[in-house]
Predict the 3D structure of the following.
Amino acid sequence: MPKHVGALPLNTQGLKGIWGLEQLDNTGASFWKLVSVFTVSGILIGAALSVLIGPVHADSLMASFYTPVVSTVTLLGVCGVIGFSTALNVVIARAIEADLSVLSLVDDVRECIPLLRPAPKVLLSIILPMLLVAVLTGPTLAGGRLGLPLGEAFVVYFGAGPLTKLLVLLLLPLMSLAWGIGMAIGVGQIRCLIRLARTIRVEFLQMDRYCALANPAIRVILIAVSIVSLFPIMMLYVDDAVFSTQVAKMVLMMLVSAVPLIVMWSCPVLILRNRIRDRKAQELHNIMLALQGQDVTLTLARPQNPDTPLSTADLLTHQMFIESRWEWPVAAHVQKLILFGLLPPTTWVLSAGIENFMF
C-alpha cells in the first residue's frame, strides 16, 4: 500500500495572490451557492443597467444593430457571464485540490501543490492582451458591419451612447479579466498535472484513482461544451440576422481557440497514459520470462510462501489482470463525454426546429 501523505493545504493554492478571489474562497461558500448567487446577481445587474441606460442613440449608425432587444440581451449576457466566470474560477481552483487529494492516496503530491499558484508574470501576460481584445472587439465588429476603418469605427462606436461606452470601458474588460484569471489558474493547473503525471507512481491496483488526473481536463471540456450550447438559444431569442451571424462567428472563434487549450489539458493525461503503457509492456514481458522459467520480479503476483515459485496458473492469471488494465486514465469519463458531446448539435437542431415551427 502507498504511504499516506497527510492532508493537503486547507487554503486554495490556485487563488493565492489573486485579490478578491482569495477572499471569496475564504468564505467557504459552496459550489452551488457561489455559482447561483454570482450568476443571478450578474443578470440582475444587467437588467438594472438595461433599464437605466437603454439602447443606443436613435440617430447613431449603431442603432440598426443595438436594438432594444439586442441591447438588453447583451447586458444580461455580459453581466451574467462576469458573475458566472468569477464564481467558476473559485470552483475550478478548489476542485483540482480535491482531485489531488485522491491522487495523494497513490503517491506524494505535495511538491506539485506550489505550481498551482499563478505567477504574476503569467497573470499579466494573459490578462493584458485579453483586455486589449476586449477594448477592440466592439469597434472592430462595428467597423466590419459598417465598412469603416478602425479609427472611424471607434468614433462611431463611442458616440453611440452610454451603452457602448459602458461595454468597452467596463463590462467587456471585466469579462476579459475574469477569463484571463481563469486561464492563468488553468496554466498553473496544467504545470502541476504535467509534473505529477511524470512522477506519480504507477499502481495497477489503484488505476481508478488516476481518473482524478483527467478530471480538470474533462471539467474544462464540459464547461466549454455547455457554454457553446447556450448560443443557439440566444440566437433564437433575438430575431436579427446580423446578430445571429456575429454570434455564429463568436462560436467558431471559441471552437478554434479551444483546440490549443484542449491539447494543453490533454498533455498530462497523455504523459500518464504512456507511462502506464510502458509499465504494462514491461510487466507483461516479465511474465513471459517467468513462464519461460527465468527468475524475474513481478509487481503484484506474490505467493503465500515467498520460497514457493509461482505456478503457471498464477502467472497466466496475473497476465490476464495486467492486460485488463486500461491505459487511458479517463475510463470513468467516457460516457459523460459522449453525452455532453451530443449536447451542442442537439441544441442547434432543436433551435432550428423551433424557429421553423414558430416563424
Q: What stands out?
A: Confidence is low (pLDDT under 50) at residues 1-10.
